[in-house]
Amino acid sequence: QVQLVESGGGLVQAGGSLRLSCAASGRTLSSYVLGWFRQAPGKEREFVAAVAWGSGIKDYADFVKGRFTIYRNYAVNTVHLQMSSLNSEDTAVYYCAARSLSTQAYNYWGQGTQVTVSS
């Protein structure tokens, strides 16, 4: 089992920045991928970014490249999502998720944190 707890959401003006955090516990993370997803009202959940904890290999959705950065903090088993140049389309509930390197499906999820971008 992997437990994930997100924090850092809130209200930000368009063009602003926000950092989300996801604290992970329960398993050694070296064989896991930690990712961020988001779900806007009336839309399906979509992939945002992910990082393989052990290798550091990162992946981003095209719509966040150059604006969002995912990175790990080994000391506290936390993965962050630094978001900049935010716009109203980034408004969503952001979820942290984890999957084993041996699977494609994310099967551990956090409770989500709301990000609202005001124009």
Mean pLDDT: 96
Helical percentage: under 10%
User: By helix and strand content, what is the structural category?
Assistant: mainly beta
Distance between the termini: 40 Å
Main sheet properties: 7 strands, mixed
What is the H/E order? EEEEEEEEEEE
How large is the radius of gyration? Answer: 13 Å
Beta strand count: 11
Alpha plus pi helix count: 0
- Global morphology: globular
| Strand-residue proportion | over 45%
Low-confidence region ranges: none
Quick overview:
The chain is mostly beta strands and about 120 residues long. It is built from no helices and 11 strands.
Descriptive notes:
With 119 residues, this protein is mainly beta. The chain has no helices and eleven strands. The protein has strands spanning 3-7, 10-13, 18-25, 32-39, 46-52, 58-60, 68-73, 78-83, 92-100, 108-109, 113-118. The strands form two sheets. Strands 2, 4, 5, 6, 9, 10 and 11 form a seven-stranded mixed sheet that branches. A four-stranded antiparallel sheet has the order 1-3-8-7, with no helix packed on it. It is globular, with a radius of gyration of 13 Å.
